[in-house]
Design a protein that fits this description.
It contains 14 helices and 33 strands. With 534 residues, it is an alpha+beta fold. An eight-stranded antiparallel beta sheet has the order 28-25-27-26-30-31-29-32. A seven-stranded mixed beta sheet has the order 2-3-1-4-5-11-6, sandwiched between helices. Strands 18-17-23-14-15-22 form a six-stranded antiparallel beta sheet. The structure holds guanosine-5'-diphosphate. It comes from Pseudaquabacterium rugosum.
């Protein structure tokens, strides 16, 4: 306990994840509405309008600036401060999303009840599962013709590999959607479509067995009641510990566009989701209510104004209290900084921030002082772990069209690499830089940004490599032997070795079978598809 404990305890930091079109934007907006952070729906929609055209990368480019203001939203609800982090919708930017997931304590998964678990959701879930992030599930669009709730529950359970515990259960669907039975409060909340009402005005019928329900909702009610019996027999009781460790997910049904079921989700976030916990650093474990400030940069976003080249580093406060103008140290470089124009993200507006506590996200404008994965402290040498970099799946060679612009290319690529927009590799043998990405769109964005922000036309050409693995040695004979073995490996494979932005040695190969052969030949070398910043 410390004087910070009450502030930490009242914070909830979560990401909202879904496949495009499941209703993430709509739900986000309704959460803001129900918390009172915004008065009328619409502001999130505006952003969405541009996001929808994301097959067109120019649109993504345009949005970069817009989304700075809207990718983190803070709201107050009941006694809590809720930080909601949006995850980029386009799958080519999934790397960014994965990093966002390292900055949250829980995730809210939105599922389109007609489509069930879709590919993008699946990938995001894998990351949540790997980190044992607690997940709340919202099944959306019950006002439509959708899958049967039992089938959905079964699918989610299988896909998630965790037990689904329904908190509500739908009565009917589409035209016959009557509302949800609240299994915990023993009541039914009646659905009325299209109303723009907020908290407290919903019609509630007490008692799940109330004969009024059968009269009013007929077969839909009978079916729901039967399903609940089944579910009650089969599903275990909700166990808070199991939820916190990612083994159970509470499930809610609703219709975000109709404001229906939103309040339950907001309440569940407050009642069930964890407040910020301790975080692992290489040196030690850090508690959120320790007096000294620490934080970690999980996202870097370039600003709209290309001429300025300033970038906002998104930092999750891990411990202590942040106050504007305090003296901070970037542990990696040892540099000091005293950020004065730090921003927070209240209800979509950027506002100057005075203080922040563990779980809060702050934005620090900077010109390249901060990199992804950086740990910021009041002076302690501390490095947080766990920010993932994924081995790219696509590669290109990059050169300048005009040799006099080589310097601009290098500078541009370095910055774009630091932002996480692309991964840049320097081959051990040869001088042509290589780009690695997880999505094709990243190359196009990089070419465009090099040209417009760094006045450098890049020539991006195909490259024979298709697989990358970071390599380390593990001889079991100590660090000196490991280093010798690693150097031996690098020398022996110099034609297919490169260094990434933080000088981590990386093996590049053309085909997966080639990788397997190399692995078999080098038993003391470890090959990693994932690198955690350290
Ligand atoms: P996102 O891509 O996940 O952010 O999805 P959006 O929130 O933009 O929603 C995609 C579409 O589904 C939009 O046209 C929404 O109006 C619609 N939508 C969202 N929630 C519901 C719902 O509960 N019922 C129906 N019928 N449509 C919905």
């Amino acid at each position: 306990m410390s004087e910070l404990t009450p502030q930490v305890k009242r914070r909830r930091t979560f990401a909202i994840i879904s496949h495009p079109d499941a209703g993430k934007t709509t739900l986000t907006e309704k959460l803001l509405l129900f918390s009172g952070a915004i008065q009328i729906a619409g502001s999130v929609k505006a952003r969405k309008a541009s996001r929808h055209a994301t097959s067109d990368w120019m649109e993504i480019e345009k949005q970069r600036g817009i989304s700075v203001a809207s990718s983190v939203m803070q709201m107050e609800y009941r006694d809590c401060v809720i930080n909601l982090l949006d995850t980029p919708g386009h799958q080519d930017f999934s790397e960014d999303t994965y990093r966002v997931l390292t900055a949250v304590d829980a995730a809210l998964m939105v599922i389109d009840a007609a489509n069930g678990v879709e590919p993008q959701t699946r990938r995001l879930l894998q990351v949540c599962r790997a980190r044992n992030t607690p997940i709340l599930t919202f099944v959306n669009k019950l006002d439509r013709e959708v899958q049967e709730p039992l089938a959905l529950m079964d699918e989610i359970e299988r896909e998630l590999g965790m037990t689904v515990v329904p908190f509500t259960w739908p009565v009917g669907m589409a035209k016959f959607f009557g509302g949800v039975l609240d299994l915990r409060k023993d009541q039914m909340r009646v659905f009325s479509p299209g109303e723009d009402r907020v908290a407290g005005t919903e019609e509630v019928v007490q008692g799940l067995a109330n004969p009024v329900l059968a009269d009013r909702f007929g077969p839909a009610y009978e079916q729901a009641a039967g399903e609940i019996e089944l579910v009650r027999e089969a599903a275990p009781e909700f166990d808070h510990e199991a939820f916190l460790s990612g083994r159970q997910t509470p499930m809610f049904f609703g219709s975000a566009v109709n404001n229906f079921g939103v309040q339950e989700v907001l309440d569940a976030l407050v009642d069930l989701a964890p407040s910020p916990g301790e975080r692992a650093a290489m040196q030690r474990t850090v508690h959120p209510d320790e007096p000294k400030f620490t934080g970690v940069v999980f996202k870097i976003q370039a600003n709209m104004d290309p001429a300025h080249r300033d970038r906002i580093a998104f930092l999750r406060v891990a411990s202590g209290k942040f106050s504007r103008g305090m003296n901070l140290k970037v542990v990696r470089s040892g540099k000091s900084m005293r950020p004065n124009t730090v921003v927070t993200f209240m209800s979509q507006k950027r506002e100057l921030l005075d203080e922040a506590y563990a779980g809060d996200i702050i934005g620090i404008p900077n010109h390249g002082v901060l990199q992804l994965g950086d740990t910021i402290t009041e002076g302690e040498a501390l490095q947080y772990t766990g920010l993932p970099f994924f081995a790219p799946e696509m590669f290109r060679m990059v050169e300048v069209a005009d040799p006099l612009k080589t310097k601009q290319l290098k500078a541009g690529l370095q910055q774009l690499g630091e932002e996480g927009a692309i991964q840049v590799f320097r081959p051990v043998a040869g001088s042509v830089l290589m780009l690695g990405a997880v999505g094709q769109l990243q190359f196009e964005v990089v070419a465009h940004r090099l040209e417009h922000e760094y006045s450098c036309k890049a020539r991006i050409s195909p490259c024979r490599f298709q697989v990358a693995r970071w390599v380390t040695a593990d001889t079991g004979e100590g660090p000196a032997a490991d280093e010798r073995e690693l150097n031996r490996f690098i020398d022996g494979n110099s034609h297919r070795m490169a260094y990434d932005a933080v000088n981590a040695p990386t093996l590049l190969v053309e085909y997966a079978p080639e990788l397997r052969a190399i692995e078999a030949n080098w038993p003391k070398i470890r090959f990693h598809a994932l690198r955690e910043h350290a």
